[in-house]
Amino acid sequence: MLVARSVALFVAAALFEIGGAWLVWQGLRENRGWIWIGAGVAALGLYGVVATFQSDDAFGRVLAAYGGVFIAGSLAWAMVADGYRPDRFDVTGALVCLVGMAVIMYAPRGD
């Protein structure tokens, strides 16, 4: 149950961070305006809040593990929001990152 909660928190964090960055991008690069930028900044702040709910107390470990989620999530976001089609190397790289995330976050430790 702890792993399921942790994975759900990683997914929520990814939605806030990637979505927030995308909103800022849209506001600035696509000239959608300050409301988009403000919504993006708010979402990025919520990403920071969601990350604190992970049960592991090691900030560096949580953030390092989240890096793998961010990579895979960014490709998924690009597919849904921008019609991006990842190639086999994108997919392979994302899977490697997710395996690395799982090792960092969920490997049994003696501490």
Set out the fold topology:
Blueprint: H1 2-29, H2 34-51, H3 59-82, H4 88-106
Helix pairs in contact: 1-2, 1-3, 3-4
Can you give a write-up of this model?
It is a single chain. The protein has 111 residues and is mainly α. 80% of the residues lie in helices and 0% in strands. It contains four helices and no strands. Helix 1 runs antiparallel to helix 2 (34-51), helix 1 (2-29) crosses helix 3 and helix 3 (59-82) packs antiparallel against helix 4 (88-106). It is flat and about 50 Å long. The chain starts with a helix and ends in a 5-residue tail after the last helix. The mean pLDDT is 95.
Question: What is shown here, in short?
Answer:
The chain is mostly helical and 111 residues long.
Which stretches are low in confidence, meaning pLDDT under 50 for 5 or more residues running? none
Q: How would the global form be characterised?
A: flat
- Average per-residue pLDDT, rounded, comes to 95
Radius of gyration, whole Å:
15 Å
Question: Total number of β-strand segments?
Answer: 0
Distance between the termini: 20 Å
State the order of secondary-structure elements, H for helix, E for strand. Answer: HHHH
Pairing-aware structural class of the strands and helices? Answer: mainly alpha
Alpha plus pi helix count? 4
For the largest beta-sheet, the strand count, sense and barrel status come to: none
Kindly state the percentage of residues in helix. over 70%
DSSP strand (E) fraction? Answer: under 5%
